[in-house]
Amino acid sequence: MKRKVYLSKEQRRLLERIAESLGIGESEVLRQAFMEYAKSINLITEKVHGKI
Hints:
Elements: H1 9-22, H2 26-40, H3 43-48
Helix pairs in contact: 1-2
């Protein structure tokens, strides 16, 4: 399922720069950022340990 993400012009430029510098697609940058955020608020750990 394809979903749209709406970004401001500045956010879009940052996303493009990050993707280009890492040599990966914009969707992969967003996916990785989402997973890092989930880890930072302990959602990943909780899911692994069955707390969710």
